[in-house]
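== Folding task for one protein ==

=== Format: two labelled lines per protein ===

==== Paired sequence and structure tokens ====
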Amino acid sequence: MLRKIRRFRVPMTDNLMEVLTGSPVAVLSGTFDWLDREHGGALAYLQRAGVDDAVRDQLREALLRRTV
């Protein structure tokens, strides 16, 4: 993403850098709200995208490990 931003000469602000390289609460919250509203949640979104059960389980485990 950073490479694309630089290529299009988009001015890099602190806020843009945070959104692109971090996980700001407001961005995550908005993303999960969108997933719920438009796709019935993150799990349904991944299923529709063709992500199989084993990969979803690995993703879930990796994310839960990081939050504990």
